[in-house]
Write a structure and sequence with these properties.
- By secondary structure, the protein is mainly alpha-helical.
- The chain is built from five helices and three strands.
- The chain has a three-stranded antiparallel beta sheet with strand order 1-3-2.
- The protein starts with 9 loop residues before the first strand and ends with a helix.
- The N terminus is likely disordered.
Amino acid sequence: SDDGSAAAERLTLDELAQRTGVSPALLVAIEREGLLFSHEHDGSATYSASDAALVEAGLRLLEAGIPLAELLELARAHDRAVRPIVERAVELFDHHVRRPMRDYEASGEDAAQRLVDAFNATFGATTALVAHHFGSLLLETAQQRVEESGR
């Protein structure tokens, strides 16, 4: 959930709980479900500001009336459906970007930085495409549902 920048803010579990108003125990349960990801930083588990935004978005859905159990099941179903697509996206990056860079460039810090830059560029582009597609489908499907129920 990191934004790729070295200076990305890192939060401890307690800081994430404090920022979001969600108990540490519930955050741990959400992480156990595979919906939140901690990263090792200076020897302890930390979270990013985007993880806090994710938790806050989940809270907005709960406040709108979606039950926690059903929200968690939807998130698990999404995770199961998306993981093979993510694996394929990583394969594409590895085959078409990382391997050619490795094969045709000298090693060293410059080459490593170019690889990191290429990953960050493709990461941003890929997540933008996925978010746009999901959002467009969500709007289209919701609109169809409203139109059907209005008949």
